[in-house]
Amino acid sequence: MMFAADNIRLRALEPEDLEWLYSVENDEELWQWGSSNVPYSRYSLKTYIAESRHDIYADGQLRLVIETEDEHLVLGCVDLMDFSPRHLRAEIGILLFPEYRGRGVATKVLGMLVSYAREHLYMHQLYAIVSQKNMKAQHLFERFGFKRVSLLADWLRDKEEDYVSAYIYSFRL
């Protein structure tokens, strides 16, 4: 599976992605944005890559690698998760490595993912849960047309062990 725009493409995970995936999944700084706070072994991630069908209906989620088309440089990954086949909606999460942020990559990726969700998965809705502290992500989703629909009070526990509220952003396809 591959989607591309302006030298950025999305592709399925490959076995050679194991090391950077291992570093991302075990980066304690990133745990505050997700729901996991346990380390993953290389073995479990290798098994995940090997056994993933890259089918959101079978796996309930879809992770795609963000990379440059010309040099195949990995910039991060994007996830559709908590997929509901009944309601045809999924949560979206975008992770860009720090050195590639602020370059318009996330906007391109969001556009590709929305198109894919609409045209190939026939989804009805995408949503994102965004920390009140993450102004860049709020601006990204708002610029793209996602609507802030709810506030989740004290939803995320940050690295200082304080609770931070989060917004739900929704986009109807």
UniProtKB/TrEMBL annotation:
It holds the Pfam family Acetyltransf_3. This is Acetyltransferase, GNAT family. One of its GO terms (molecular function) is acyltransferase activity, transferring groups other than amino-acyl groups. The keyword Phosphoprotein does not apply. Residues 8-173 form the N-acetyltransferase domain. PANTHER family: GNAT-FAMILY ACETYLTRANSFERASE (PTHR43415:SF3), SPERMIDINE N(1)-ACETYLTRANSFERASE (PTHR43415). It comes from Paraprevotella clara YIT 11840. Coiled coil: none annotated. Keywords: Transferase.
